[in-house]
Amino acid sequence: GAGVSQTPSNKVTEKGKYVELRCDPISGHTALYWYRQSLGQGPEFLIYFQGTGAADDSGLPNDRFFAVRPEGSVSTLKIQRTERGDSAVYLCASSEAGGVYYEQYFGPGTRLTVT
Amino acid sequence: AQSVAQPEDQVNVAEGNPLTVKCTYSVSGNPYLFWYVQYPNRGLQFLLKYITGDNLVKGSYGFEAEFNKSQTSFHLKKPSALVSDSALYFCAVRDGGSYIPTFGRGTSLIVHP
User: Fold this and answer.
1) Chain B window 52-81: which residues touch A at a Cβ cutoff of 8 Å?
2) How many Å lie between the alpha carbon of A85 and the closest alpha carbon of chain B?
3) Rounded distance, CA B59 to CA A87, Å?
């Protein structure tokens, strides 16, 4: 079946602009995670959704970052007033449920470059 | 608090030889441990997990991992490496009751023909 998809695969934007990154999880997966991965590092947690609600947003670095999942499926990560330090690969993952037993299925990521 | 360490940035092994990629962890409760592999320009793929039960866990592509509670380790192993195993490997841990995993920095595995 279809895996997790993310669009766009690459995004180049100018400093100060607004960007939206989209994630389509595996159908039926109730848990959805956003991570940020910098070169030479592991995925860094940003936000976790269980259904439509953000169950944990403690990883969002500041109030320029926001994410939604209005219907419990597709999610959008929104970044306002982008900065060069936001440049990274943004990964989305989904799992059957949010419990500790479940592995995550990752999308290919969106590479964001802020110039 | 939970943390995970992958002490080696890179592991080199000849094709056909056994391989080990190391991972140690720290949790305050029961550990739930995962290994993922990442190929270039692709997302992470799940390999195997330890939740409870047998300390030796078998996973995809012939990989296995051994949970050692006294040494707080969860090393990834394969008896005979393939060139196609060359990739970036990530260990992750969840503390009991936590929905959020912590990932290690990753280990680059290079298998030489």
Assistant:
1) none
2) 19
3) 34
